[in-house]
Amino acid sequence: MLLVASQSLTAGAIAANFDTARPTVSKHLQILTECELLEQKQNGREIYYNINAKNMKQVADFIEPFRKMWDDRFNKLESIMKEYKNK
């Protein structure tokens, strides 16, 4: 997602950044587009993908409470491990 956060890219340009077959990347792009997390715009024969920031914000807002919960749990585990190490 970081690749298309600041610029529109074609599927080929996106796939060039991964050690994965282009059809696999295309399938992922299709799923992200269907979920409306990516937008696609056609320019001639090329299709360019860019992030749908509004919908990504909704996902981030949904995930935030879970991120905080896991941060709290890892911080607690870290405290327990430090106490154990000091004993």
How many strands, what sense, and barrel or not for the largest sheet?
A: 3 strands, antiparallel
**Helix segment count?**
3
- The dominant shape is elongated
Number of strands: 3
Average of per-residue pLDDT values: 91
Strand order of the largest sheet: 1-3-2
Overall helicity? 55-70%
Output the helix-strand order.
Answer: EHHEEH
Class per helix and strand makeup: alpha+beta
Low-confidence stretches: none
What proportion of the residues form beta strands (DSSP E)? Answer: 15-25%
- Give the CA-CA distance, first to last residue: 44 Å
**What's the gyration radius in Å?**
19 Å
Keywords:
3 strands, about 90 residues, about 60% helix, three-stranded antiparallel β-sheet, alpha+beta
